[in-house]
Amino acid sequence: MDDLFAGIAIFLIIEGLAYALAPRFLVRMARLLPHIPEDQLRLIGLSTITLGAALLWFLRG
Q1: For residue range 4-24, what is the model confidence (pLDDT) as tens digits?
Q2: pTM for this one?
Q3: How many CA atoms are closer than 13 Å to the CA of 28, on its beta-carbon side?
Q4: Which of 1, 39, 48, 56 is the least buried, fewest Cβ under 10 Å from its Cβ?
Q5: Backbone phi, then psi, for 37, in 5-degree steps?
Q6: Which residues 6+ apart lie within 8 Å of 18 measured at CB?
Q7: Cα separations in angstroms, 6 against 20, 28, 31, 50, 57
């Protein structure tokens, strides 16, 4: 359970940093998202999940 809370904390820190350091970039990305095809967004999401799972497996293994 500690790992879950640590993961959530790290996620919140990274999200907060993005908003604090690059708010204009995030606004521009939000404007671009509706124009990106769903299939491309899905592929990016699945790729990110796969990379994250592989990295976690490597670090824990």
Answers
A1: 899 999 999 999 999 999 999
A2: 0.70
A3: 5
A4: 1
A5: -60, 145
A6: 26
A7: 21, 30, 31, 20, 16
- In the chain, alpha helices (H): 2-21, 23-32, 38-60
Q: What residues have CB less than 8 Å from 55, skipping those under 6 apart?
A: none
* Model confidence pLDDT, tens digit, residues 29-45: 999 999 999 999 999 99
Whether the Cβ atoms of residue 31 and residue 23 lie closer than 8 Å to each other: no
12, two tokens: 């919140």
CA dist., res. 51 & res. 33, Å (int): 22
Q: How many Å apart are CA 8 and CA 18, to the nearest integer?
A: 15
